[in-house]
Task: inverse folding
């Protein structure tokens, strides 16, 4: 089964050496431009001192993740051109970020917010809405973290397969070991450690992507050959172009994912860690460049049809998650496989660290502290412990959810998190949203979104696990996210209108100026 | 509302349109090393998108 994979002792040695360097960088990161790590905004926001290049890397780290390496190519291989929607998603996602994040950054700077829920609480004068936003963020982030773990597991799975070991037990042990390292590394270094090791990770990733594409194209045949092979092996799947009946599905998956991207706690956390607003804008504007890497990696799902031995690994194990690792292992020399595997492996680790920090910040400040007051030291301590706990909950997901449906985990998380859009994004541009209507809209959105997913998968398709996030309409399938958001917005807007008619007036702790200009007092405090 | 937010909103709308004109880019030809135009167009548009966003990013505000 493992024939044709260039995996041996050299591969493992390179993997371990490069991992040691990674671990060193993570721990070193905690000492670099050292701040007081016992404070939450030092550990969690890097003391708001990251320049544009580090913001670029930190936020880019969220793009080169297991979603890119494992979930998208796997879904592309199974379903075809539809899953190229990840490209417009990346292009639009950062445009929406440039529209919303500078305003959120400014108000957070002026008022000392660390999370989106901090802001929502003040903007709406509503504790329940803030807690709803915080809990939604935490819940939606868990399947995303789980997806990272699926990616790490896939790399170790192929590594062990190539070494002749195929016992599932070994993969699980190795996974748990890696996880302990991650937990220790997150615990001691916080966000700054993750950003520094993220730079290292991304350099290895770019090398892997470009080298592998070049090797496959020069030695195994071009895209025309791959398309012909794909058609011979999977005649029913469209790889050539997008079938017109899937236009709405493609477009709505891209748009729905765009709405979700910067509502995730880790993305907001990364944005708020920027040193100033202009650096945040510049770092975000450059991010679609990362999408080019994502587009190339997605095409690994097509190029694999030129490499029989790699395709056999995927087909014989019926695990789409093996697409990219198998293709790399079948086409590049043993030492390079070690490098590439490490890149993919830490490609899951680093985002998992960043995400669990985001979730922990959110949960500590906006759920726990709503009920009991903590000292700054205890606050940071609790956040660190929680970040560990959340990683282990996510780890549990992996053992329950089959790897082939990994991308559905992310799409489901997207549906849930998007329901906070009126509270977090819309409120940045208007104070006319009433708190109870916004909360009711959120609730209706979450219930209808999750309800439709359950309805489509288990009642219509009689599937045994999560296999689709699309709802069939007369115009073709549509991403459930947009339906749920529509219901949410309708209730939020109509409710606010009714409230206004019966005498409610906007709550104004936050002025228009707070959203647009950094107060001089906070600037001088920063420089001191 | 200052100039920057208006500019980035318009840039985002333009970008969404660039990726919504399916009849223009959902084609097999022309190809690059056998890769259909569907993929080439969308990948090149990422570079175009970056350029548009970069210009907007330099507007103060």
Result:
């Amino acid at each position: 089964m493992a024939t044709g994979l260039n995996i041996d002792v050299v591969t493992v040695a390179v993997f371990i050496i490069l991992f040691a360097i990674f671990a060193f960088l993570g721990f070193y990161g905690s000492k670099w431009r050292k701040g007081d790590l016992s404070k939450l905004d030092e550990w969690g926001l890097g003391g708001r001192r990251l320049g544009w290049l580090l913001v670029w890397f930190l936020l880019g780290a969220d793009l080169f993740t297991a979603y890119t390496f494992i979930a998208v190519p796997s879904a592309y291989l199974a379903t075809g051109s539809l899953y190229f929607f990840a490209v417009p998603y990346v292009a639009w996602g950062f445009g929406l970020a440039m529209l919303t994040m500078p305003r959120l950054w400014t108000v957070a700077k002026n008022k000392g917010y660390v999370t989106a829920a901090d802001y929502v609480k003040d903007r709406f004068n509503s504790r329940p809405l803030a807690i709803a936003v915080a809990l939604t963020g935490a819940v939606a982030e868990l399947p995303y973290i789980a997806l990272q773990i699926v990616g790490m597991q896939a790399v170790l799975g192929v590594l062990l397969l190539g070494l002749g070991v195929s016992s599932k037990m070994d993969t699980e042990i190795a996974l748990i070991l890696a996880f302990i390292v991650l937990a220790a590394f997150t615990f001691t270094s916080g966000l700054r450690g993750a950003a520094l090791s993220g730079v290292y990770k991304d350099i290895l990733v770019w090398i892997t992507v470009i080298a592998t594409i070049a090797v496959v194209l020069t030695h195994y045949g071009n895209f025309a050959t791959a398309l012909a092979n794909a058609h011979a092996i999977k005649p029913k799947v469209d790889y050539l172009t997008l079938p017109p009946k899937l236009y709405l599905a493609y477009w709505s998956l891209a748009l729905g994912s765009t709405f979700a991207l910067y509502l995730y706690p880790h993305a907001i956390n990364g944005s708020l860690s920027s040193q100033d607003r202009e650096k945040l804008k510049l770092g975000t504007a450059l991010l679609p460049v990362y999408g080019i890497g994502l587009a190339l990696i997605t095409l690994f799902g097509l190029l694999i049809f030129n490499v029989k031995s790699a395709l056999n690994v995927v087909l014989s194990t019926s695990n789409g998650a093996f697409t990219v690792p198998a293709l790399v292992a079948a086409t590049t020399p043993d030492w390079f496989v070690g490098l590439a595997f490490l890149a993919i492996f830490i490609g899951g680790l680093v985002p998992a660290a960043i995400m669990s920090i985001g979730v922990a910040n959110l949960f500590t400040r906006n759920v726990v502290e709503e009920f009991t007051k903590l000292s700054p030291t205890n606050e940071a301590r609790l956040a660190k412990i929680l970040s560990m706990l959340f990683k282990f909950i996510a780890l549990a997901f992996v053992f329950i959810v089959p790897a082939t449906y990994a991308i559905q985990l992310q799409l489901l998380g997207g549906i849930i998190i998007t329901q906070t859009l009126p509270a977090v994004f819309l409120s940045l541009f208007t104070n006319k949203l009433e708190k109870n209507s916004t909360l009711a809209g959120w609730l209706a959105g979450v219930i209808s979104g999750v309800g439709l997913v359950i309805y489509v998968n288990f009642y219509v398709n009689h599937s045994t696990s999560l296999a689709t996030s699309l709802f069939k309409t007369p115009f073709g399938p549509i991403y459930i996210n947009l339906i749920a958001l529509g219901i949410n917005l309708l209730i939020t807007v109509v409710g606010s209108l009714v409230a206004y008619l019966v005498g409610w007036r906007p709550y104004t702790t936050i002025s228009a100026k707070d959203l647009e200009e950094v107060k001089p007092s906070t600037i001088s405090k920063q420089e001191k | 509302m200052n100039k920057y937010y208006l500019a980035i909103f318009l840039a985002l709308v333009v970008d969404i349109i660039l990726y919504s004109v399916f009849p223009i880019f959902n084609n097999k030809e022309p190809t690059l090393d056998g890769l259909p135009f569907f993929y080439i167009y969308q990948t090149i548009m990422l570079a175009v998108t970056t350029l548009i966003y970069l210009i907007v990013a330099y507007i103060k505000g």
Notes: Confidence is low (pLDDT under 50) at residues 524-528 of chain A. Chain A touches chain B at residues 81, 84, 87-88, 90-92, 94-96, 98-99, 102-103, 217, 222-227, 240-242, 244, 247, 251, 254-255, 278, 281-282, 284-289, 291-292, 295-296, 299, 429, 516 (CB under 8 Å). Chain A has one domain: 9-30+50-414.
